[in-house]
Design goal:
2 domains, disordered N terminus, single chain
Length: 361
């Protein structure tokens, strides 16, 4: 099952930035794979109407594509998300991810390493269209003593910055077969990045998009979802809540360990013990309440400091955004305008302003 809310789509404008300003991109090779990979993705896409009219398109895919367009229309009419050509075309990439992101953190810290690019600023990942290249870069980072990981990204956003339907973000085979709730989540999440984007602030951007996706998905399923779809989302949310609680507990324990006065050797031993306990707790949860559910196995198998850093990027500021939405009377248009105002501020001022606008209860 798609776990994009935890490991998923990160807005990637590296290729746009590099095409606009070649200086600052890490290398010619990285620039080339970014540009070529994105253009190949776009070239594979055709309008959804063409797929629906094509007699060779399998009926299950037609039904799924028709569903995406209903969700896409709902994003505009009910959630006031951008009305443009994004997710109006579809591409089968013949692979299971749009890109593979590399994330890294120090051996004894949960702070993610960042990479900086023109236009978009600094982001806490480096994306590759080829899995082998991503794995090779992760190995290089590990050789430097970092905790590094590679995770599949089913979709990403170019923030609606490039005009023309050809350059609009397409639907992909990497996510259209996910559950109805997860499909709605992803479309709402990615469109949210077109509403507001703060350079150098991955946590702000992803937490905002997560807030919109949660609200939008709940509304979509309440109004249009089947009983089965609502039940599937409820079960998924229950597991996700367990996952959040478990990982938050161990994130706090690891952070306390890393911030302590213990020697590096003791910290390494404590880290190994905590991660072993975490895996044991996951195994117990899987055997009990989750009834054998395997969707998080990969995350726990590969867990390291970078894994915890990626999780935080998607959820850390969600409570503040939810309070900000409530302060706007639940009015999404006013909420978006306030988020756009905050996104335009310098990072430290933005965080302070968010706390003031959405104080803790």
């Amino acid at each position: 099952m798609l776990q994009r809310a935890w490991m998923g789509s990160v807005p990637t404008l590296v290729l746009v930035a590099c095409m606009a300003l070649l200086s600052g991109c890490g290398s010619v090779g990285y620039l080339a794979q970014s540009v070529q990979g994105h253009l190949r993705l776009l070239s594979a896409a055709r309008p959804v109407g063409d797929w629906l009219a094509d007699p060779t398109t399998a009926e299950p895919l037609k039904a799924r594509l028709a569903l995406t367009q209903r969700i896409r229309d709902y994003a505009v009419t009910a959630l006031h998300l951008p009305d443009n050509d994004s997710y109006r075309r579809y591409a089968d990439l013949q692979r299971n991810a749009a890109v593979w992101n590399v994330a890294a953190a120090p051996e004894l810290s949960l702070t993610l390493r960042t990479w900086c690019f023109p236009v978009v600023g600094c982001v806490a990942y480096r994306g590759y269209y080829d899995r082998d290249q991503a794995d090779a870069y992760a190995e290089l980072l590990r050789a430097l003593g970092l905790d590094a990981g590679v995770y599949a990204v089913p979709a990403y956003s170019t923030l609606g910055k490039i005009p023309g339907s050809y350059f609009a973000d397409p639907l992909l085979n990497t996510f259209v077969q996910s559950t109805e709730g997860e499909l709605a989540r992803l479309i709402f999440h990615e469109l949210s990045h077109q509403v507001a984007f703060a350079p150098d602030d991955t946590v702000f951007n992803e937490s905002f998009a997560t807030t919109v996706e949660r609200l939008g998905t709940a509304r979509w399923l309440a109004e249009h979802g089947s009983v089965a779809a609502r039940a599937a989302l409820a079960a998924h949310e229950a597991r996700r809540a367990d996952f959040r609680a478990l990982t938050a507990t161990y994130r706090e324990r690891l952070n306390a360990l890393y911030q302590s006065a213990a020697s590096d050797g003791d910290k390494r031993r404590g880290k190994a013990e905590l991660l072993a306990q975490l895996r044991a707790d996951h195994a117990a949860l899987k055997a009990g309440a989750w009834q054998g559910y395997t969707g998080y196995d990969g995350w726990f198998d590969r867990v390291n400091n970078a894994s915890f850093g990626v999780l935080a990027a998607y959820t850390e500021l969600v409570p503040q955004f939810e309070r900000l939405l409530a302060a706007q009377g639940g009015d999404l248009t006013r909420f978006y305008a306030e988020v756009q105002r905050l996104a335009a501020l310098p990072m430290e001022e933005r965080r302070r302003a968010l706390q003031i606008a959405a104080p803790s209860p």
